[in-house]
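Aim 2 progress. For Hydrogenase/sulfur reductase subunit alpha, the working sequence is reproduced below.
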Amino acid sequence: MPSIETLKNLKQETEKMLDAAEGCVHLFSSLNYPEIKADLALFSQGSGKTYEVYDGKYITSNKKLKQKSRDFSKVIDEEIKPYSTAKFGYHKGKGMMVGALARLNLQGKLLKGKAKEFFKTASLDFQNPYHNNLAQAIETYHFVQEANEILAELIENGVNREATTLPKEYKSKKLSRGVGVVEAPRGSLYYEMEVDAKGLITHCNIITPTVQNLSSMEETAQIVLDQMKGQSKEKIQELLEMLIRAYDPCITCSVH
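Predicted structure tokens for this construct:
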């Protein structure tokens, strides 16, 4: 367990990081982003009580959806395409987007302190995926701010030094199913596993953020091509490269 002195040193570091994170927000707020008109279906975990990362019980969407997270298969359909080794996630046949832009659209009002101020003044366009980078900058400030607050609480109240509890021997007479959901930096991450009576994993399904974003990446890339027809080939290539970087895909994660 970290000592109080260690926690104090960490808090000093996070306070320095707050200045750097604020600088990032100002930098990304000052940039000129390509303007495109899309119809993004945004998805995020959420409870409506706090800015959810670990404990969201529901999948929420700007398309008026609220589904229990454990029933994610009712929301996300995966497709395999002949030209790609990755899977593509769709919702009712249409592309979907997860990540910082989606979270701020659905949960931004739950931010606190300066992070909330940045959110209110950032002029985010939630139908422009290029703005995901600005959303990431705002989230970075939020999480550093939250880390600083947690450290302050631990310094004041101390660390609860509970003994580590080791798992007991697995015993079950039936098939068990478990679902784990978390908001990773790139977006919602789903793990589904089934375990038999012997404790052996008989089924595993993982849906990563990039799986969900790939469908939207394709759709918005086509929008860029359609809306930028008057631009040079070099300019369109640059815009497409910027678009892909804004989504921040992990292709390796989406191959399973």
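The chain has a mean pLDDT of 93. This observation will guide construct design in the next reporting period.
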